[in-house]
Every structure is written in C-alpha cells, then in structure tokens.
Amino acid sequence: MSSLRSRSAGRRCAPEPLRRRLKSWSEKLGRLDTICDALVETFSRSLCREYSRHFDRILHHNLDKALLSGGGSSPAFGGGSVTFPINIYRAGRATNKNRQ
Asked: Does the pLDDT at position 15 exceed 80?
C-alpha cells in the first residue's frame, strides 16, 4: 500500500492500525480477488515455462483477467451441500508465433 500521506501537510491520512487492517483485509486468502489473482499468476508462469521450453524465450502475452462466478449451496446446521460449483473464466491473449 502506498504511503497514506497528505500532499499539502505531509501528515498521515490514516492511523497505522487502520492501514494495517486495510492491508490484511485486502490480502486475505479465499477472497474472490485473491483467488483470481493467484490463478492468472499461475497460468502466466506456466505459459512462460512453455514459451521458454518451445521457443527458448518468453513471448508476449497478457493473461491478467479472470472472472469468478459464484456457485450455489444449500446450507444446513452442521453441514450442507454444494448444489453447483463456481465457474472461473480466464481472459487475455497469448501468441504461438515466434516472430524475431
């Protein structure tokens, strides 16, 4: 998180405990953004390994978007069931052409 300082006075805009809380909330595992970020990061790294293996270099790609669509469940005290799973869609572009 960037420094939360006021441009004019050089003072902090938020107290330290609030800044820590905001950071910890935004990086919690299991949040939709965290899940999507981890998936596109993993996919991009895998693609880089494949590019290196096949082309001896990493080709241009933009695989930085993901959409997580919530599933369904039937909650019950002490249990429940998943009625349909989440859907995850990746978006972006990659090439399979080695242009020098």
From this structure: no
In whole angstroms, what is the distance from residue 57 CA to residue 49 CA?
9
Secondary structure letter of residue 2 according to DSSP: -
Fold of the CATH domain 30-94: GMP Synthetase; Chain A, domain 3 (3.30.300)
Residue among 81, 84, 89 nearest 32 (CA): 89
pLDDT at 90 over 80: yes
The pair of three-digit structure tokens given for residue 33, joined into one six-digit string = 């953004």
Q: Where are the alpha helices (DSSP H) in the chain?
A: 16-26, 32-55
What are the pLDDT digits (tens) for 16-69?
Answer: 555 555 555 555 666 777 888 888 999 999 999 999 999 999 998 898 888 888
Q: Supply the DSSP symbol for 38.
A: H
The structural domains of the chain, with segments of one domain joined by +, span: 30-94
Instruction: For residues 43 and 90, give the distance between their C-alpha atoms in angstroms, rounded to a whole number.
Output: 9
Task: Quote the tokens at residue 1.
Answer: 């998180």
